[in-house]
């Protein structure tokens, strides 16, 4: 196993992301989030965009899973869709490149295996495949991915569930030879422990730690629901 991926074993990875429109958008805020995550016990980070990847890496020295989002979840493949995106994120200091590992067509028409091959050969970095199903995970493994993550479960059709997809995590742990990272809608300490007990190599938590806008919305919505 790649040494950076090996070093993440059993740990908490904190995703520090704030999209435009979020008052915390910007590398200075993400660097502060990353420092707080480090002090709190994170052993790795996930960040989006060249500025944020560089900022959080420099602020902490932690390994960063880097992505570049092009468009949004509604656009199909949007997490590090092309080699040019991966190259930019590698140049910004990412230790691992994460990319969409679903079966959906990529915007440049390239297959996942040729993207992964180029990342390995030209950037010398490991690749994390963000998948949504066992089938996608099988394909990503055959395409040469170094690590799988459940990141895109719930985001490729239908309603987004409220909780994490522990069933997919279990299925991937059972069927894949690769390490599997639990990611997506982990909101409680109990759920990250459950993921680890289910065999997750590590757990990524984003919104619940680094997105006060969404955290506030959840509290406010709970009060609204209680009143109605
Ligand atoms: C679907 C999608 O766009 N996921 C993104 C991937 O990087 C992020 O927006 C998530 O915050 C991240 O996966 C962590 O998950 P959560 O924030 O639920 O802990």
From TrEMBL:
UniProt keyword terms in alphabetical order: Carbohydrate metabolism, Isomerase
Alphabetical list of InterPro entries matching this protein: Aldolase_TIM (IPR013785), NanE (IPR007260), RibuloseP-bd_barrel (IPR011060)
Catalytic reactions of this protein: an N-acyl-D-glucosamine 6-phosphate = an N-acyl-D-mannosamine 6-phosphate
A molecular function (GO) term: N-acylglucosamine-6-phosphate 2-epimerase activity
Superkingdom in the source lineage: Bacteria
GO biological process: carbohydrate metabolic process; N-acetylmannosamine catabolic process; N-acetylneuraminate catabolic process
Span of the signal peptide: none
Enzyme class (EC, first level): isomerase
Chain segments annotated as coiled-coil in the UniProt record: none
GO cellular component assignments: cytosol
HAMAP family cross-referenced by the UniProt entry: ManNAc6P_epimer
Known role: Converts N-acetylmannosamine-6-phosphate (ManNAc-6-P) to N-acetylglucosamine-6-phosphate (GlcNAc-6-P).
Family: Belongs to the NanE family.
Protein name: Putative N-acetylmannosamine-6-phosphate 2-epimerase
